Amino acid sequence: MKQQIVISGLGGQGVLFVSKILGEAALARGLSVLMSETHGMAQRGGNVISHVKVMDRQGEKDQGDVAMDPAWQVSPLIRPGHAHVLLALHEEGVRAHGHFLSPDGALVCNRISPTGPGDVDATGIARKLGNLLAANLVLLGFAAASGVLFCSMDDLRQVLMRLGGPRRDANLAALEAGSAAAIGDA
Amino acid sequence: MTERKILLGNEAMAHGLLEAGCTLAASYPGTPASEIVGTLAAFKRSGTIAMHVEWSINEKVALETALASSYAGRRSAAAMKQVGLNVAADPFMSAAYTGVTGGLVVIVADDPGPHSSQTEQDTRQFAMFAKVPVLDPMSPAHARDLLLTAFDLSEDYQIPVLFRPTTRVCHARQDMPLRPFRQDAPLAQFEKDPARWAATPKFRFLLHKKLNEKLDAIGRDPRLQPVQLNPGASAEKGGGVIVASGAVCAHTAEVLKDLGLWQSIPLYDAPMPFPLSEDFLTGLLDNAPRILVLEETQPVMEAQFRDRAKVLGRLSGHVPREGELLPETVERIVRAFAGLPQAEASQGANAPGRRPTLCPGCAHRAAFFAIRKVFPRGIYPGDIGCYTLGLNLGAVDTVLCMGASISQAAGFYHAFRDSGQNSRPIVATIGDSTFYHAGIPALINAVIQGCRFVVVVLDNTTTAMTGHQPTPAEGRSLDGRTVPRVRIEDLARACGVRHVSVGDPYDFQAFTDLLKAAREHTRDPENGGMAVVIARRPCLMDRKQAQPARRPAPRINDKCQGCGFCITHFECPALVFHGKEEAVTVDDALCTGCGVCIHVCPHSAIEMAPQP
After folding, report:
1. Prediction ipTM score
2. Which GO terms describe its molecular function (chain A) (predicted)?
3. pLDDT tens for residues B80-133?
4. Which residues form the domain of B194?
5. Is B572 annotated as a binding residue?
6. Do B258 and B207 belong to one domain?
7. Is A76 on the interface with B (CB under 8 A)?
8. CA-to-CA separations, B198 to B64, B213, B378, in angstroms, rounded
9. What does the alpha-carbon distance between residue A173 and residue A3 come to, in Å, rounded to a whole number?
10. Does B48 share its domain with B119?
11. To the nearest whole angstrom, how far is the Cα of B541 from the nearest Cα of chain A?
12. Is residue B47 a contact partner of residue B74, using CB atoms and an 8 Å limit?
């Protein structure tokens, strides 16, 4: 297993979008991904969690005995104490999902008043950008530039470029602002 | 190189259906199954597939439609969540007897946990009950592949096949190579055979006999025998083997590898947990000292062992009888099975977390607040949908199953009236999609039984909870054809309701007046009866619908005493409580400017912001 990442937030904060970007970044690097997400009732404003597992590609298996492919013999969930990184889009996420983090894992947390090295006021930065909804990308850029993720800022930039869409430039700006906050803090 | 794509489990299953040459897919949305047909619907809208795809009115209709299409020799599928099969139980049980011609796969997604369901029922047990084979995939890619086998199996034995993914398969994402969709499909052909398709009880007996014979043969089918995932492993002296199916098997493989047990505990994946072949079961009983069975959520494989003296599972108390088998739970069970010490107790979630709530600006919240205001002593039977969350507001007292709000309201009405008590007001709330699904027969019944209560149809003109699938009010099929609109107000009148009104809950005063008028109708001794009020406002989260321009957030003035009334009785996420005697603030990132909270504050402390 290359990296196990838990992303925690509240419904509507863009937890799924962050997972999607990480998954695409893994794919672009020739890695495989297995992710789990929250849908339905729990999405309505409750705590939302997403599990992202990144691993080496297990052969280009396309045919044959399906269950024997080791790529499929991986749980879609991360066990408590086994996450290498916890991305908390809301500080409540640390209380709700902090137990997933491995004792030597890295916590990256969106906090209004940062208290530790993994903290950043992503919402404040996003507000300054006039793009309050992009706090998720600010946090992601901060995490990538801090060097705790399996992928680089450049990988993430390329994913956002490829995804395109009307929010592309705003998303990229948020990602860069998060990265700048990490480098400035270093 | 083939293109690789990350697919959600439900998307992977949609691909599997298309790769298998399925020609018809019918479904009613329900978490965790919704995106299977949702994916097909998106393909259909973009004109890229020939398959007939439909959001049916309910699961029974979906299954019956798919079944007849398969009678006509064409591969067909129905998809639903586990409680949807309860609704479709009638055709399902019978379809096992009649069998099929073209392959029929019924995908039923289970929700151990449960995360977004009323029960943790195990559809594999439903398969045993109906005597049909059931397949249990362990991952999205596995699900896609297994669907091809499911159709072959169905056609080879002329039997419906149940396909049972769980939430952890449906809502997992995994990268996989894309494959072409199968384009050839046979022309529809129906051979009349009343002894089979319209069998009377005498012939049903013969069909039952045939079904039993099919099932014996299917259990022995080489394509779906349990497979040892770690062929190098052999049980140590006195050790054991594990038999698992579904996502639990994936958890178990990972745990065995992590604990260094991959070479010493053979792990069998059973892609078809029912029927298991007698050879497999007796082979294990003869050779393995102990057999641990890991499956969700009921003991289906475990119960198929005739002698359970050395079988460990739910029946023996070694596996919890309720709840999801999370990987950490599997780890605890495997450690105990292998005689390893338990890991340091993980501290677990250290906070209960936030409970789900209606979205900011949701019109349901306004409707519920109005209902509480007009019927303060009411009994409020509720129903299944986003608006179940009205229970946070004290405006939902019962939630049972789709459509039950209206029939339960009737039950309360009879109970109070017949026991000679001054009837308490009863207000049923039901969503628009749920009303179409199962509310109509209940409403007719209430009318013809002489009930007098108010039904509020919370009409956001979409199926919101499951991802905004269209309702019959849309007037358009998935392939873009214009079809008649079926309107709730017309249906309510046709059900015999004489008092039907429509209002916008944002227009709070007028909507409250509609509720009062409905209340008067239920009390009118001469001409009164049932009343239906339709609370109509498009869902704010539905990007397909025209939304009014966002209005500025209201202001909190200096009359706010921090009493918390708006927080507990209205619970809008945009209103932020800072403690008693501190003024509430408005989170303008969340506020949609609906302005309904202005009517909520007992101190008139919330006021409209001046128009810019």
Report:
1. 0.93
2. oxidoreductase activity, acting on the aldehyde or oxo group of donors
3. 999 999 999 999 999 999 999 999 999 999 999 998 899 999 999 999 999 999
4. 4-223
5. yes
6. no
7. yes
8. 14, 21, 48
9. 26
10. yes
11. 10
12. no
